[in-house]
Amino acid sequence: MKMLKKRLAGGLKLVFVILFFFSKNSLAQILDYETEIFISELISEIKEVNQINKNINFKIISDNKINAFVDENNTIYITSGLIENCDDYVAFMSVLAHEVGHIDQNHLIIRKSSAENISNLKKISDFTIIAGSVISGTPELLQGIGVGQASISNVYINFSKDQEREADYYSVQTLEKLNVNSESIINLLKTLEKNALQRGLTKEKQKLSSHPYFEERIDIINYVNKNRNNKFNIKTNNEFYFIKAKFLGYNENAEIIEKINNPFKLYAESIMYAKKGRLLESLSILNDLIAKNKENIHLIETKADILYSYGYTKEAIKFYELVLKNLNDNIYAQMRIFQNINLGQLSIKEAENIFEKNINLINNHYNNREILLTYLELSKITNQKHWIDFINLLFKSEGENINDLKKKLSNYKKTKDENLLNLIKKIQRDL
Questions:
Q1: CA 10 to CA 252: how far, in whole Å?
Q2: Given its phi and psi angles, is residue 357 left (phi above 0), alpha (psi -120 to 50 degrees) or beta?
Q3: Residues 133 and 206 in one domain
Q4: pTM to 2 decimal places
Q5: Predicted local confidence at residue 427, as pLDDT
Q6: Residue-level pLDDT at 113
Q7: Counting C-beta atoms within 10 Å of the first and last residue's C-beta, which end of the chain has fewer, N or C?
Q8: Which residues pair with 68 in a beta bridge?
């Protein structure tokens, strides 16, 4: 069996998303359908119980630090390290609620307006404000990560201690409203405190931090959260643990893997084995898990990812098709299938059907080179000149000034194709 260079294994699509015609920066972002659906549902619960109408987005970034932070666009950034180090879904939800608290109480706007150097900014609307939260209140997490929109600078703002306290209260009160509680929240804070001390952040230095003392934060949890009617959801927690195991396996976090129970430990190990080149062992464990957890279609996606990463593309595509049949909005399975279409054997009619069927991919991922290249070839087969010209324009705009690209897009009125016009409008809004 020929060993091919492994790209990914274990259900996570780790993507360095290069906004190639927008920015020189890249974002180490993890794309995973199962995790995104899970987080979306938790945020929806938090919003509903607090009667929030704001649109709140999130991104999962690859970083072993335990952290989360927000920006002025109401986007919560969640590190993979946070997911790996939460004992259960309640601890993870408490962090999400903390970040939502900053958004709901407009903390970022308040800090933005009071920043000492705000008068030195030419146009504050041209900057993405990144607000540190949860843990250290230091900007080191942002180094090397282009977390903002393209071609804009990042201004790092620490929330005040009072705002952090408010967000802590908001978090525990949210969990009270949801009737969930767990010692895991305190365990997470103790882990953070241990990590902080290892980094040299002594209690004396914490006086200079934007965050309250860890003891004070624990006291807030113990004082506010007196809920006795604990509706801890075992099903939700199992879903979280499968996700956590996926992250642990992908990042080969053996220390934590040893501490978790089966079947989650086995799942993490199957992914870790795949990463280490032990394919047969990996698939043997995974096949057994799939047989015993038939309702968990995400395990099949993981199998597809592992096969794909080893170069077994045809076999992987069959499993991706099974995933898409059960989860028809799984855009990542759709992307895998789309990017492996045999273009050379398509008739014009087949190409037209594929073009229309997958139009959501180019709408949502117009900065993805592989998708653009496939659409370029489909455009050539179907002789859609306006699409050919447009996609070539995007490629030629690599590294170009945003204003120049905006001008070219605004002048692009040569087509009556609704799909193309809608895509151009979307790009203009995003710019």
A1: 11
A2: alpha
A3: yes
A4: 0.83
A5: 85
A6: 65
A7: N
A8: 78, 133
